[in-house]
Write a structure and sequence with these properties.
Elements (H helix, E strand, L loop, with lengths): L4 E4 L3 E4 L12 H31 L1 H4 L6 H13 L1 H18 L2 H19 L5 H4 L2 H31 L5 H5 L1 H21 L3 H6 L4 H18 L5 H9 L6 H19 L3 H15 L8 H29 L1 H25 L2 H15 L1 H4 L2 H8 L5 H26 L8 H19 L32
Helix pairs in contact: 1-3, 1-5, 1-7, 1-9, 1-11, 1-14, 3-20, 4-5, 4-7, 4-20, 5-7, 5-11, 7-19, 7-20, 9-15, 13-20, 13-21, 14-15, 14-16, 14-20, 15-16, 15-17, 16-17, 16-21, 19-20
């Protein structure tokens, strides 16, 4: 079979899928395997990530941040949740570099193990009462390790799945990384429900540790699945042609710097999820509102269970009509629905909280959450895809990570105390929608042309391998 490569002025010679003898292009079988690996790995990663968020909202202010003012303790605890987002950009730079240099699969296995070890260690930490200031220091160190891991997880899982997926179904298969995200949140809430129902003495002594220990059971299954996954045809072709960038991040900012900035702006949508998953739980269970914490966890379970189905459905819709229209409708919808959800919480109306919470986080938010893994991957050319995705998204997610702490400081007293929080989220949502509106549409672009600005004089590359049926 003759070799076919795309000669491009931005990245030199870029191999197309199946361009080397013995290298297969994307197939449905490979896409299913990659989607399963992405689902399981993301489920573990975000189970660990959001177990921390739940304990930061409900338990850690008492156990690790013992100050006289409970509001200050809550802000400090929620800031420890956000501190992981400081490490995410560093993880994006480092893991993105190696993902583009040594392969997507190896980095994905590493991120899985790092998140699992850090989470298990949190479950064995001593509290402030036992070791004083050393307790929050150790907690923050392990939280930074979680953030470093998460900085490369989404980019790796999404890039690997996209490069295994047939054209016309890329968003659908890639969305399973985010279905894993929702599944991880469901699992985190289900595990935490009986823990949250424990008497305070049991909860604060040993109960909060159990969800962190449970992660060991999940990591074993996810590790086996990821180890058995093949590297992507795109990366194998790059290696054999020696087309791998020496320093991917330098190439990235030289060739696609504006795309990185755009992805950062689009990523501000993450504020919605952080406020729903973390801050709203703390707000609802506060003395000022007084909703039952276990009841609020059921809202999260129902919303994320709905999202497991809605995410691939929204992604499949974007495979038919385009990424931009689905995304923009979702971002604007979240901007309008979040105030209604927060108002329902302040009013103490649990039925309305449940309905608006499921509609907001389970359905409307899925219109953006199901698309970004595919769209961010499609934005960048293969030699810098992992780095571009990771760096752009994680710098944008940094704001989302600190949104719960910012919200805790912004929220006022009284029934309308949530209004400044809604304004913050709405501003981020509108910036995200506008940035998406300025982006290039990618859903019909062949895999080998993604991220490339072709000159008319250049030859048209060979089409992708037809989808296996």
């Amino acid at each position: 079979m003759p070799q076919r490569h795309l000669s491009h002025p931005e990245f030199g010679t870029v191999p197309t899928p199946g361009s080397l003898a013995g290298t297969r292009g994307p197939t449905t079988t490979n896409a299913r395997k990659a989607a399963l690996a992405a689902f399981l790995g993301s489920m573990l990663e975000y189970y660990d990530f959001f177990v921390y968020g739940l304990t930061a909202a409900l338990v850690f202010p008492t156990l690790f941040f013992q100050v006289d003012d409970p509001t200050v303790a809550t802000v400090l605890s929620l800031s420890s949740f956000g501190i992981a987002y400081v490490a995410r950009p560093l993880g994006a730079f480092v893991l993105g570099h190696f993902g583009d240099r040594i392969g997507r699969k190896k980095v994905m296995v590493f991120t899985l193990l790092l998140m699992g070890v850090a989470s298990l260690a949190i479950g064995f930490l001593p509290t402030y009462h036992q070791v004083g200031a050393l307790a929050p220091i150790l907690l923050v160190v392990l939280r930074l390790a979680q953030g470093f891991s998460a900085g490369g997880e989404a980019a790796g899982a999404s890039t690997l799945t996209l490069e295994h997926s047939p054209r016309g179904r890329r968003a659908f298969f890639t969305s399973f990384a985010m279905s894993g995200f929702a599944g991880g949140m469901v699992l985190a809430n289900i595990v935490f429900l009986p823990v949250a129902a424990l008497p305070d003495e049991a909860l604060y002594s040993w109960g909060w540790r159990v969800p962190f220990w449970v992660s060991v059971l999940v990591i074993a299954v996810a590790y086996v699945v990821r180890r058995r996954l093949d590297e992507t045809p795109v990366f194998v072709a790059e290696q054999e042609k020696e087309a791998v960038a020496a320093v991917p991040v330098v190439e990235l900012f030289h060739r696609q710097g504006s795309d990185v900035v755009r992805v950062m702006a689009i990523s501000l949508f993450s504020v919605f999820q952080s406020l729903f998953a973390v801050w709203s739980l703390s707000y609802a269970s506060s003395d000022a509102v007084g909703l039952d914490r276990s009841a609020m966890l059921w809202v999260s379970v129902a919303a994320n269970a709905t999202a497991v189905i809605a995410l691939p459905a929204m992604a499949a819709l974007s495979d038919r009509v385009g990424r931009r229209p689905v995304w923009i409708v979702g971002a604007v919808g979240c901007t309008l629905l979040l105030p209604l959800y927060l108002w329902a919480i302040s009013a103490g109306s649990y039925p309305l909280v449940f309905v608006t919470g499921v509609l907001f986080a389970g359905v409307v938010y899925s219109a953006v959450n199901g698309l970004w893994p595919a769209f961010f991957s499609e934005t960048f050319a293969a030699p810098v895809r992992y780095s571009g995705f990771a760096i752009g998204s994680q710098f944008g997610f940094l704001i989302g990570g600190f949104a719960p702490a910012i919200a805790a400081g912004l929220a006022g007293d009284g029934p309308w105390g949530w209004l400044p929080v809604a304004v913050l989220a709405g501003g981020c949502g509108l910036v995200s929608a506008i940035a998406m509106a300025t982006a290039r549409e990618t859903y019909r672009t062949p895999l080998d042309e993604l991220g490339l600005r072709r000159r008319p004089s250049e030859p048209t590359p060979a089409p992708e391998t037809a989808m296996a049926r």
